[in-house]
Write a structure and sequence with these properties.
By secondary structure, this protein is an alpha+beta fold. It is built from two helices and four strands; from the N terminus they run βαββαβ.
């Protein structure tokens, strides 16, 4: 039976990009299966994120009740095995500056 693959996608401001990538790579994310031994593999794209903090929020950027638009990066990385995906998310949450980091995890299928 082959190892399950997961894809972690997260959004991060430019100032925290390096720290967040380093944290997830240290947790084991971004290792590509195969004889080549590739590590720290990811795809990064730039875009604009937006959010409006609620009354109980303690935002890292922006003000409560005000719509904020900012430059962010979207990072996509493969995680080999559920344990690696869980560890990568935990590492991301510790390294990310936002009160609630935006991320997604998908189980990948082999075809």
């Amino acid at each position: 039976m082959s190892v399950q693959k997961f894809k972690l996608i997260f959004f991060v401001p430019p100032s925290a990009l390096s720290a967040c990538k380093s944290a997830i790579f240290t947790a084991g994310a971004g290792r590509f299966p195969g004889a080549g031994g590739y590590t720290e593999v990811c795809f990064t794209s730039r875009g604009t994120g937006q959010f409006k903090p609620g009354d109980a929020a303690n935002p890292h950027i922006g003000k409560v009740g005000e719509l904020e638009e900012l430059d962010e990066f979207r990072v996509e990385v493969m995680c080999m095995g559920k344990d690696t995906a869980v560890k990568a998310v935990e590492a991301l949450k510790k390294a990310h500056p936002y009160e609630e980091p935006a991320y997604e995890v998908y189980k990948m299928e082999d075809m």
